[in-house]
């Protein structure tokens, strides 16, 4: 496999992991990840703020 093909595959893997590790609300990589029963991952601070707003 050529070096350019390896780089392309590595970028695909990185992108896949970034999508899986992105906060469902802010769409950034999660900080202090929290997973809810449905399997979504959120940043703890964002989830805390949303819970306070909905109370």
TrEMBL record:
It comes from the Eukaryota. SUPFAM superfamilies: RING/U-box. This is Uncharacterized protein.
């Amino acid at each position: 496999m050529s070096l350019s093909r390896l780089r392309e595959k590595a970028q695909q893997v990185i992108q896949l992991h970034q999508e899986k590790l992105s906060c469902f609300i802010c769409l950034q990589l999660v900080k202090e990840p929290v997973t809810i029963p449905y399997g979504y991952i959120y940043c703890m601070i964002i989830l805390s703020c949303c819970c306070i707003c909905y109370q």
